[in-house]
Write a structure and sequence with these properties.
The protein has about 300 residues and is α+β, with helices and mostly antiparallel strands. It folds into two domains: about 80 residues, Orthogonal Bundle (Arc Repressor Mutant, subunit A), CATH 1.10.10; about 200 residues, no CATH class. It has a six-stranded mixed β-sheet. It has a two-stranded antiparallel ribbon with strand order 1-2. α1 packs across α11 and α6 packs across α10. The termini are close together.
């Protein structure tokens, strides 16, 4: 694939989310093509000159989509407020000894939230404590969780994905899933779990070869702070394991009549509808065709 095709493909994918990109973002999320920044700059200049794409306020977008720039700036404002609420949720989940990582995913992770969006969270648990972690997560965030009926959704916690730290590899390996992983914003990270997540999913570089993990700022850690509290956490962690199967069966019983497109396993729980993944990839292919991007 030529660099120009990769750029158009990258802008087409993000156009699905009404999300124009900066130069550095195009470089980072460049689809199916490894490229240096200078080559990319020349390609962008040529595409703008030939009116294949537009450029405004340091953002690049598909032809005729200039209005998305102000929309992105507006959504960044909404996202900043939601991120503070997400950090509050992470502070609460820090109390659960088996939580290894808490991260924001979806639109908020990209700073692209609507005003009334909820807050998508990814939770990684200690080995063998997936269902225990989910149980206590739901209890502590009960009053802050998204209403299943869709009411009062603003800034509510949506617990989309739970992974056991022994099963970090995602098996749906496609462009959509690759993006979902690389755009994660960590709020709490114990034992370098984020780094292990990326290493376990090295396949994502097939789709996004330019992307590199960045320092995401000082994430919280359950091991920080008062040492006596840390010892208490370790005590709880070692004594709660016998209840994992019981808590799993209780939750499965509760969820039995509610499960639709969710993916429920022993070490991975996906509550985000898989239909979304299929729809996004279909929209991407439609945009690629409409932009006459012939990938070779």
């Amino acid at each position: 694939m030529k660099i120009s095709q990769a750029v158009l493909s990258t802008l087409a994918y993000h156009d699905i989310f009404n999300y124009p990109l900066t130069l550095s973002e195009i470089h980072s999320y460049l689809i199916d093509k490894k490229s240096g920044q200078k080559s990319l700059e020349k390609t962008l200049e040529l595409l703008v000159k030939n009116k294949r794409i537009g450029n405004d306020q340091s953002f690049f977008f598909l032809k005729g989509k200039k209005s998305l720039v102000n929309l992105r700036i507006q959504r960044q404002h909404h996202s900043q407020k939601k991120l503070e609420k997400a950090k509050f949720y992470a502070q609460i989940l820090r109390l659960i000894p088996s939580v290894r990582l808490v991260a924001v995913s979806g639109a908020l992770a990209m700073g692209n939230s609507h005003k009334n969006d909820d807050i998508d969270l990814v939770i990684i648990s200690a080995k063998g404590l997936l269902w225990t972690t989910r149980f206590f997560t739901n209890i502590l965030l009960w009053q802050f969780k998204r209403d299943p009926k869709g009411k009062n959704r603003t800034d509510r916690a949506c617990l989309n994905l739970f992974l056991d730290e022994s099963a970090l590899k995602i098996h749906d390996q496609n462009l959509y899933t690759a993006h979902e992983i690389v755009q994660l914003k960590t709020l709490l990270d114990n034992d370098k779990t984020y780094s292990r997540l990326i290493k376990s999913n090295s396949w994502l570089f097939t789709f996004l070869p330019n992307w590199k993990p960045e320092e995401q700022g000082p994430a919280l850690s359950s091991t920080q702070g008062w040492s006596l509290f840390h010892l208490f956490q370790r005590f709880l962690l070692s004594n709660v394991r016998p209840f994992e199967t019981i808590l799993k069966n209780l939750q499965l019983l509760y969820m039995k009549s509610k499960i639709t497109t969710e993916k429920i396993g022993d070490r991975q729980l996906f509550f985000h509808p898989k239909e979304t993944q299929r729809q996004i990839l279909m929209k991407y292919e439609t945009r690629v065709r409409s932009q006459k991007i012939f990938k070779t």
